[in-house]
Design brief:
alpha/beta, Rossmann fold, 2 domains, about 40% helix
């Protein structure tokens, strides 16, 4: 920040775009406190900070969100941008984030493809297979052939194991069942149709 500010003395302010996530997110308070300490070292007007919340993000496409980040001199993404945004195709996020690779910000470079940042739950499991229960990855769109294969695999897992969990790759505590009578109901549910 300091080197950017020095290069731009007398010019327009350095622009920082920050996606904070939910309006009451814990990370937002900590970041703003740290940012205030950093900004106190600069003259007023040297750095312009623009915040965006999830409610503001709901009106944008993933392309428009990345464009907004690129319009800054540097950026911070403090929360999972796709969380609670059912109109985004989660599979389109990683290619869009690739556009940020050469831009100054956080996360950047390979961090933009980190499964934790993208909330790709299946990639978590792939990293530690020796510690995981048997897992079936259900790919979208879910056609008839895939449905047959996945249903057979889940049936086999039920016979082999002590239970199972269904978790969609890009969802966070928003869709769940307390009781499922059939595997087909699980596989045909909105978990796999609407969330991703």
């Amino acid at each position: 920040m300091e080197s950017l500010s020095k290069k731009r003395r007398g010019a327009q302010p350095v622009i920082l775009h920050v996606f904070v996530g939910g309006e009451s997110g814990v990370q937002q308070g900590h970041f703003k406190h740290a940012l205030a300490l950093v900004l106190s070292r600069f003259k007023k007007g040297d750095i312009e900070v623009v915040f965006m919340t999830t409610s503001q993000l709901r009106q944008l496409s993933i392309e428009a969100f990345v464009d907004w980040l690129l319009e800054s001199h540097f950026y911070f993404i403090l929360s999972h941008a796709h969380q609670s945004l059912h109109h985004w195709d989660c599979r389109a996020i990683a290619p869009q984030y690739t556009r940020l690779m050469g831009h100054i910000g956080f996360p950047t470079h390979n961090q933009l493809h980190c499964p934790i940042f993208l909330q790709d739950k299946f990639a978590y499991l792939e990293a530690i297979p020796e510690f995981c229960n048997a897992t079936v990855k259900i790919l979208l769109p879910w056609d008839a052939a895939s449905r047959q294969h996945d249903t057979e695999r889940i049936s086999q897992m039920l016979l082999e194991g002590n239970g199972w969990v269904v978790k969609t790759g890009f969802s966070t505590n928003c869709d769940n069942f307390k009781i499922c009578r059939t595997i087909e109901k699980v596989c045909l549910s909105s978990l796999f149709v609407d969330v991703c």
